[in-house]
C-alpha cells in the first residue's frame, strides 16, 4: 500500500473516530439530561399539586371558621364547598398516581374528619362549647394534614436536589469524557507518527547512508528494506543498483577499454535513477504536507469547541491555546504561546480580565498539578476585558510521558454562566415565594386574632350591658328596702314599747290574750325582733356593695379614657370573685392579701382594665384549685393558698413618664418555662377542652400593651408560684387608639 494511501486512510479513520466519540458522548449526555429533566418536571408538577392542596386546605379552614364565627353565613359554607371540590380532585389525582404512599393515605383520613365536621355544621345549631370544640378539632386535623404535606414536600425537594446533583455529575462526566477524547486523539497521533512517519524517516535515513556508502565505493552495503510501498520499491531498486555496480566494478579493470561505451549508457541509467529519486523525494514532501494537514485538522477540531483549551509546559508557559481562549482576552496566539500569565500581564493590557489575585490562584493550581494532582473548579469566576463576568467550569490535569513523569498541564474551561444565572434566578424566586408565603401566613394569623378579639370584645360588651342592667334592676328595690328598714325599726320599737307599757298597766290580761301570747311566744319575738332587723340591714348593705361592685366592674359609662381609682377596680373584681375565694366542700379558701401603695388617679379604659384583672385573678384561682386538688390536707395546712396584690407608683425616668405597677402573686405550682414563653399567644391554653379558649391572656396583653402603652410580664418557677406584673402610664398618650 502506498504511503499516501496509508496516511490518508489513517487520518480519515482518526477524524471519523473523533467525530463518532464526540457525537456519541454528546448524544448520550443529551439523552441523560432529557431523562433527568423529564423526571424533574414530573416531581415539580407533584410539588405544585402539594402546594395547591395546602392553599385549598387553608381556604376550607378559613371558610369553616368564618361560618362558625360569623353567625353561620351561607356564603362562607359555599366558599368552603368550592375549595373542597378542588382539594378532593387534586387529592384523587395524587392517590391514583401514588396509591401506596402512606402520607397521602393518612392525609386523606384526616381530611375525612374535617369533612365530617363540615357536613354536621350545616344540619345542627351548636352552642359555644361545641362550637369551640369544633374549631379546635378543625385546627387539630389541619395541623396533621399540614405535617403530612410537609413530609410530602420534603420528599419532593429531596428528589429535585437529587436531580440537580445528577445533572452536575453528568456535566462533570462529560468534561472527563472530553479529556479522555483529547488524550485519545493525542495518543492516536503519536501512533500514526510511529506507524507511518517514523518508518518513512528511517527508510530515508537508510537510503542516505546507502548513498554515502555507494559514493565511498562500498558496493557490498545493502539497504534490505522490505515492503510494498514506494520507499521499499526505491530501496529494492537501490540494492539491485548497488549489486549491479559491484559487478560492473569487478569487471571494470578487465573491460575498461571494452566498457567505455557502456559507461555512458550506465550514466544514463544513473540519471534515470536520480530522476526516480527526485520523484521519491517529491512524494515524501507530499506525505509531509499531508501530515501537516492532519495537524491542521486536529487544530480545527480544538478551535471549533466553545470551551477554553490550553496546554502549559513545566515552566508554566503556554504551548497551546485554542481560539476561544485567545478571543476571550482579545489576544493573538503569538501573544500567548511561549509566555506565562505574569509575562502576558506585563506586556498586554487585559483590563479587568485577570488580576494579581487571580494570577496567584492560577499559579498555586498549576503547582499542584505538577505534583500529579487534578484541579476542578466548578464555579470559576472570570472577567473579560470589557468587565463582563463569566462563570466557568474549569478542570486541569497533568500531562504524563511514557515514564509517568509530568511534562505539562492540560486545562479545559466550559462557560456555564447561563446555567449559573438560571440557578441563581431560581433560588431568588424560591426565596421570594417563601417570603410571600410567610407574609401571607402572618397576615392570616393577625386576621384570625383580630377577628377573635372582636368577637370576645362583643361578648364582654354584651356581658357588661347585662351586668349593668341587672345591677340597676336590683339596686332600685334594694334601695327601697334599705331606706325603709330604719323606719320599720322605729315603728317596731314603738310597738314593742307600747306592748311593754300595756303589760305594765295591765299585768293580768284575759285568758284569751294570755293564750295568744303563749302561742306566738311574745317574749321571744320581743327579744329576736331587733336581731332580725339588724340581719336585714346587714343583708341589704351586702346587696348594695355587690351591686356597686358590678357597676364599677362593667364601667359601661366609661368607654373613653378617664381618670379612675385602680384600687376600686381591683376591689370590685375581687367582690365578683368572692364566691370562688370562699371555702367550700370541693376546695379550700384562698386568702387575699392587699398591699396597696399610694396611687394617683390613672387615665385608662377602666372596663378593659377590669377585664385584665378578672383574667389574671381567674387564672390564678384555677391554678390554686388544681394545685390543692393534688395536695394532702397536711400540705394545705402547712402552705395555705394565697394571692397577694401589690400596687406602687414608679418615679419617672428620662425614657419613661410616671407609671404605676400592679403585681399579682400566687403561691401555686408555678408555670413551666416552655408554657410561660407561650402564655400570650392567641388560642394557647393548658386547660381541658371546654374550660378555656386560650384568649384571656392574649387579649389582656393586647389591652395593656396596645391600648394603654404599658407592659404585661410574667415571672414563674415551678413549685415557687407565679407573678404577673402590670405597668401602665399614669397619663395616657394622645396617639393611643381606643
| Shape category | rod-shaped
Oligomer: single chain
Q: Helix fraction?
A: 55-70%
Mean pLDDT: 77
Number of helices: 19
Strand content: 5-15%
Uncertain segments are none
How would you describe the overall organization of this protein?
Strands 2-1-5-4-3 form a five-stranded antiparallel sheet, with helices on both faces. The chain has a five-stranded mixed sheet with strand order 7-9-10-12-11. A hairpin with a 5-residue loop joins strand 4 and strand 5. The chain has 19 helices and twelve strands. The chain starts with a helix and ends in a 9-residue tail after the last strand. The chain has five domains: 183 residues; 115 residues; 111 residues, PAS domain (Beta-Lactamase, 2-Layer Sandwich); 120 residues; 181 residues, Heat Shock Protein 90 (2-Layer Sandwich), CATH 3.30.565.10. It is α+β, with helices and mostly antiparallel strands and 738 residues long.
Amino acid at each position: 500500500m502506498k504511503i499516501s494511501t496509508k496516511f490518508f486512510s489513517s487520518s480519515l479513520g482518526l477524524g471519523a473516530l473523533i467525530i463518532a466519540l464526540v457525537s456519541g458522548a454528546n448524544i448520550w449526555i443529551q439523552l441523560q439530561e432529557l431523562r433527568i429533566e423529564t423526571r424533574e418536571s414530573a416531581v415539580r408538577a407533584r410539588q405544585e399539586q402539594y402546594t395547591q392542596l395546602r392553599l385549598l386546605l387553608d381556604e376550607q379552614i378559613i371558610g369553616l371558621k368564618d361560618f362558625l364565627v360569623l353567625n353561620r353565613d351561607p356564603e362562607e359554607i359555599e366558599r368552603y364547598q368550592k375549595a373542597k371540590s378542588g382539594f378532593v380532585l387534586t387529592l384523587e389525582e395524587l392517590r391514583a398516581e401514588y396509591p401506596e404512599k402512606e402520607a397521602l393515605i393518612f392525609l386523606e383520613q384526616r381530611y375525612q374528619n374535617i369533612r365530617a365536621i363540615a357536613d354536621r355544621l350545616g344540619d345542627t345549631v351548636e352552642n359555644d362549647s361545641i362550637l369551640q370544640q369544633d374549631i379546635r378539632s378543625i385546627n387539630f386535623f389541619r395541623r396533621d394534614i399540614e405535617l403530612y404535606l410537609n413530609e410530602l414536600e420534603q420528599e419532593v425537594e429531596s428528589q429535585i436536589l437529587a436531580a440537580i446533583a445528577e445533572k452536575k455529575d453528568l456535566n462533570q462526566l462529560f468534561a472527563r469524557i472530553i479529556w479522555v477524547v483529547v488524550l485519545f486523539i493525542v495518543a492516536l497521533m503519536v501512533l500514526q507518527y510511529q506507524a507511518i512517519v517514523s518508518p518513512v524517516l528511517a527508510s530515508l535515513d537508510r537510503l542516505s547512508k546507502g548513498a554515502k556508502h555507494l559514493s565511498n565505493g562500498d558496493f557490498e552495503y545493502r539497504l534490505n528494506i522490505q515492503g510494498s510501498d514506494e520507499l521499499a520499491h526505491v530501496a529494492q531498486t537501490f540494492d539491485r543498483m548497488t549489486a549491479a555496480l559491484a559487478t560492473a566494478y569487478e569487471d571494470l579493470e578487465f573491460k575498461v577499454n571494452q566498457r567505455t561505451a557502456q559507461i555512458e549508457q550506465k550514466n544514463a541509467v544513473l540519471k534515470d535513477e536520480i530522476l526516480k529519486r527526485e520523484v521519491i523525494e517529491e512524494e515524501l514532501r507530499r506525505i509531509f504536507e499531508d501530515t501537516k494537514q492532519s495537524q491542521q485538522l486536529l487544530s480545527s477540531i480544538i478551535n471549533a469547541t466553545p470551551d477554553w483549551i490550553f496546554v502549559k509546559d513545566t515552566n508554566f508557559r503556554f504551548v497551546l491555546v485554542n481560539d476561544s481562549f485567545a478571543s476571550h482576552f482579545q489576544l493573538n496566539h503569538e501573544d500567548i504561546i511561549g509566555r506565562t500569565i505574569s509575562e502576558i500581564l506585563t506586556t498586554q493590557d487585559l483590563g479587568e480580565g485577570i488580576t494579581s489575585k487571580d494570577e496567584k490562584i492560577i499559579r498555586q493550581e498549576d503547582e499542584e498539578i505538577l505534583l500529579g494532582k487534578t484541579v476542578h473548579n466548578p464555579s470559576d469566576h472570570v472577567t473579560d476585558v470589557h468587565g463582563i463576568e463569566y462563570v466557568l467550569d474549569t478542570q486541569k490535569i497533568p500531562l504524563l510521558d511514557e515514564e509517568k513523569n509530568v511534562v505539562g498541564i492540560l486545562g479545559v474551561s466550559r462557560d456555564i454562566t447561563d446555567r449559573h444565572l438560571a440557578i441563581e434566578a431560581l433560588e431568588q424566586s424560591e426565596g421570594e415565594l417563601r417570603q410571600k408565603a410567610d407574609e401571607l401566613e402572618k397576615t392570616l394569623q393577625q386576621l384570625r386574632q383580630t377577628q377573635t378579639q372582636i368577637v370576645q370584645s362583643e361578648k364582654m360588651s354584651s356581658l357588661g350591658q347585662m351586668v349593668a342592667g341587672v345591677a340597676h334592676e336590683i339596686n332600685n328595690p334594694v334601695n327601697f328596702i334599705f331606706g325603709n328598714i330604719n323606719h320599720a325599726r322605729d315603728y317596731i320599737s314603738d310597738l314593742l314599747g307600747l306592748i311593754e307599757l300595756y303589760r305594765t298597766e295591765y299585768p293580768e290580761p284575759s285568758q284569751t290574750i294570755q293564750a295568744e301570747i303563749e302561742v306566738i311566744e311574745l317574749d321571744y319575738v320581743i327579744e329576736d325582733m331587733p336581731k332580725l332587723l339588724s340581719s336585714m340591714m346587714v343583708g341589704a348593705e351586702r346587696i348594695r356593695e355587690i351591686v356597686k361592685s358590678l357597676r364599677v366592674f362593667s364601667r359601661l359609662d366609661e368607654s373613653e379614657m378617664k381618670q379612675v381609682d385602680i384600687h376600686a377596680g381591683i376591689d370590685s373584681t375581687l367582690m365578683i370573685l368572692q364566691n370562688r375565694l370562699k371555702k367550700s366542700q370541693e376546695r379550700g379558701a384562698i386568702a387575699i392579701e392587699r398591699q396597696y401603695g399610694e396611687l394617683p388617679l390613672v387615665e385608662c379604659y377602666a372596663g378593659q382594665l377590669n377585664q385584665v384583672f378578672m383574667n389574671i385573678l381567674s387564672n390564678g384561682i384555677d391554678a390554686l384549685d388544681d394545685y390543692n386538688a393534688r395536695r394532702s390536707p397536711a400540705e394545705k395546712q402547712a402552705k395555705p393558698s394565697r394571692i397577694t396584690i401589690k400596687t406602687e407608683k414608679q418615679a419617672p425616668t428620662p425614657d419613661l413618664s410616671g407609671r404605676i405597677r400592679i403585681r399579682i402573686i400566687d403561691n401555686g405550682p408555678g408555670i413551666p418555662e416552655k408554657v410561660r414563653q407561650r402564655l400570650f399567644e392567641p388560642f394557647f391554653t393548658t386547660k381541658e377542652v371546654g374550660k378555656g379558649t386560650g384568649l384571656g391572656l392574649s387579649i389582656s396583653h393586647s389591652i395593656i400593651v396596645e391600648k394603654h402603652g404599658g407592659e404585661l410580664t410574667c415571672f414563674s418557677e415551678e413549685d415557687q408560684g407565679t407573678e404577673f406584673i402590670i405597668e401602665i402610664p399614669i397619663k395616657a398618650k394622645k396617639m393611643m387608639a381606643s
